[in-house]
Design a protein that fits this description.
alpha/beta; about 475 residues; binds nicotinamide-adenine-dinucleotide; FAD/NAD(P)-binding domain; single chain; 7-stranded mixed beta sheet; globular; 14 helices; Enolase-like, domain 1
């Protein structure tokens, strides 16, 4: 068995792990990454990237459905669904190869295999049979093993009829009907995608509103748009059980009054959250502290074991790729002795890529009021935007929650066709301590959807000009 020596060994090559390794290498550390599956982790291979490829297909499908309105006569449009899936897989492959290129460019050694922590300075690389093939000694370890779908008792995931998002990415044929269990980001994105291609979709969400972490106005706007698209949305409804039954699935749901009903469909998608991957790689050998299914870390991503760090989904909410990457940067900088500030979770954008898209940063209106702020709320609907009308996407709005006393932008919420691109303006504004008035008085190009951000700020001061 070959022995190797490193400053940092990273276990897992998702957007947390591979970014941590690059940052460590930039700072002059000798870094290695261990990966058991494909470089890029869930995000690049089974999450963020391939889903965005599929969602683009869904947008094109909507356009084709409405082609007549745009002056095109297309006749009957047929869909080659395996080709839709193949394109998404191809995009994932390209991204995974991109990580391989970045590893070489930064002189990071990649070990394909299962990382197993023997002690706090030694990680073995093991093969499929559990046999150690390499031994890596290292001053520091960064655990970036990610998370897996959470599966509640009663929901019998068989990966054929009752599936997770991974199977939903690789169907070879469209299901005729689909029940989506949970209306968070995964549920909303797949509900939108499959509905666009003609699957009869029912979403079931335990909380009263879909996308329940979003501002209530945003959740309601998306629910309205989804219903218009033909998706059946059931809020305030709990899934009690789900199981395959012959050629379909049976899903028992319960409303807030405790009344039960059995829904049937060809398939059901389990999308009720994720839980950290904490088992099978030796955490117990070094006594890493776990809290509610995730590794406990401090603001510099240090675990309770000196020299051992953990980043990304395995450390808990918010389970987002861009959070994992920033945690990777902070951990690597701390190891190199360069970290001045720990992680700041107060300005993290959240994005959902259905149509209309949903994006937010900072506090919801409700959270700001509950935190004791006196708030000014500014709102501008896209139906009042010339650009939105011109491009045929008038659903949604921009909403800004502004502190009435000092003008601080406490939160921004956008529902609309390019919401996920537009949210960066509000994030940067908050980071730079821009006030609502700064945004109001910043000249935005006309015609753009971003003008709606400026108009929402103006509205907070009672000075909106175009509505
Ligand atoms: P989630 O936690 O965002 O949503 C799960 C939903 O399921 C919740 O709204 C919850 O109330 C509901 N739920 C739980 N039990 C239920 C039951 N028995 N019956 C009905 N509803 C129930 O989780 P997710 O959508 O699975 O996504 C996992 C993680 O990945 C999330 O943190 C998410 O933010 C992240 N993610 C992000 C993106 C993105 O940024 N676009 C995309 C996909 C996933």
């Amino acid at each position: 068995m070959a022995d190797h020596n490193f400053d940092v060994v990273v276990i897992g090559s998702g957007p947390g792990g591979y970014i941590a390794a690059i940052r460590a290498a930039q700072l002059g550390l000798k870094a290695a990454v261990i990966e058991t599956d494909r470089l890029g982790g869930v995000c690049l291979n089974w999450g963020c990237i391939p889903t965005k490829a599929l969602l683009k297909n869904a947008e094109h499908k909507h356009f084709l459905n409405e082609a007549d309105e745009w002056g095109f006569s297309l006749g009957n449009v047929s869909v080659d669904f395996p080709k839709v899936i193949a394109r998404s897989r191809d995009v994932a492959d390209q991204n995974s190869s991109g990580v391989s290129f970045l590893m070489k460019k930064n002189k990071i050694e990649v070990f394909m295999g299962w990382g197993y922590i023997v002690d706090k300075n030694r990680v073995e690389v093991r093969d499929k049979d559990g046999k150690a093939t390499e031994s890596l000694t290292s001053k520091s370890i960064i655990i970036a093993t990610g998370a897996s779908p959470r599966i509640f008792p009663g929901i019998e995931v068989d990966y054929k009829r009752v599936i997770t998002s991974k199977e939903a990415l690789t169907f070879d044929k469209l299901p005729e009907s689909l029940i989506v269990i949970g209306a968070g980001a995964i549920g909303a994105e797949f509900a939108y995608f499959y509905n666009a291609f003609g699957t009869k979709v029912t979403m079931v969400e335990y909380q009263p509103n879909i996308l329940p972490v979003e501002d209530e106005d945003a959740s309601k706007e998306v629910a309205r748009a989804f219903k218009k698209q033909g998706i059946a949305v059931r809020g305030g409804t709990k899934v009690v059980s789900a199981k395959a039954n012959g050629n379909g699935v049976e899903v028992v749901v319960e409303n807030s009054k405790g009344e039960q009903e059995t829904l049937t469909a060809e398939m059901a998608l389990n999308a009720v959250g994720v839980t950290g991957n904490i088992e099978g790689f030796g955490l117990e050998n070094i006594g890493v502290e776990i809290e509610r299914g995730h590794i406990k870390v401090d603001e510099f991503l240090r675990t309770n074991v000196p020299g051992v760090y953990a980043i990304g989904d395995v450390v808990g909410a918010p389970w987002l790729a861009h959070v994992a990457s920033m945690e990777g940067v902070v951990a690597a900088e701390h190891i190199a002795g360069h970290a001045e500030h720990g992680m700041d979770y107060s300005n993290i954008p959240g994005c959902t890529y259905c149509q209309p898209q949903v994006a937010s940063v900072g506090m919801t209106e409700k959270a700001a009021r509950e935190a004791g702020y006196e708030v000014k709320v500014g709102k501008f609907p896209f139906k009042a935007s010339g650009k939105a009308r011109a491009i045929g996407h008038t659903d949604g709005f921009v909403k800004l929650v502004i502190d009435a006393k000092y003008g601080e932008i406490l939160g921004g919420h956008i529902v609309g066709s390019e919401a996920t691109e537009m949210i960066a303006e509000i994030g940067l504004g908050r980071a730079a301590d821009a006030t609502g008035m700064t945004v109001h008085r910043t000249v935005h190009a006309h015609p753009t959807l971003s003008e709606a951000v400026m108009e929402a700020a103006a509205d907070a001061y009672g000075e909106a000009l175009n509505m």
